[in-house]
Amino acid sequence: MLNSIFYKIKISATIFLVALFFSCENDIKEIQDFLAEKNLPIGISKKIHVIHTDSGQVKTKLISPLLHDFSNRTEHPYHEFPKGIKILTYDKLGDSVTLTANYSKSYAKTQISEIKGNVIITNHKEKSKLFTEQLFWDQNTHYVYTEKPFRLITKSDTLKGVGFESNEDLSKVTMKNFSGIVYINESNKK
After folding, report:
1. SS in 3 state form for 17-69?
2. Domain boundaries in the chain?
3. CB 143 within 8 Å of CB 70
4. 48: which strand partners?
5. Is 44-188 a domain of CATH 2.60.450.10?
């Protein structure tokens, strides 16, 4: 009699588990839609360190403590770096340009990134630095621009203004509403 009760309990538990298993099956599309509807990322990665190479040479390094993947958006899929980002790009000679910021959002379809919060671009070879609070970066054309106040430090002076455009290594600069003061570094004049 006791064996019969245990047998019925085992059968009932098996049926319950099978029903539970099949009732928990979700379509991937349903999950993605649910996450998009709730404005939740499809994935979260920590301690990101991505290296992009071309023909065996390092071209770009991307470093970030946190990545939120919103590629499940149908209209505007994007990746968000809410705790900051550091991007190093290298040319054929090994010279580098570094971009750092407190936050970044990169749109997959347009390849345009919004970068904000203590944005700094450093061209190590030319010893120039750009400081601003918000910057847009077009990854297809390798072009950066802002409508916010900026400060550009070069080998010989410091330039200030509102509105800035340049290629990403700061070698071809256009300034809008240049209203700042030019500070000449006397130690470089000879």
Report:
1. HHHHHHHCCCCHHHHHHHHHHCCCCCEEEEEEEEEEEECCEEEEEEEEEEEEE
2. 1-40, 44-188
3. no
4. 64
5. yes
* Residue 60: closest CA among 146, 170, 152, 169: 169
Q: Which two tokens stand for residue 80?
A: 């968000």
* Residue among 145, 153, 135, 137 nearest 176 (CA): 145
pLDDT per residue, tens digit, the chain (190 aa), is 444 454 445 555 555 444 444 444 556 666 656 555 666 788 889 999 999 988 888 889 999 999 999 887 778 899 999 999 999 999 887 788 999 999 999 999 999 999 999 999 999 999 999 999 999 999 999 899 999 999 999 888 888 999 999 998 898 888 888 765 555 555 544 4
As given in the structure block, the two tokens for residue 58 are 């390092």
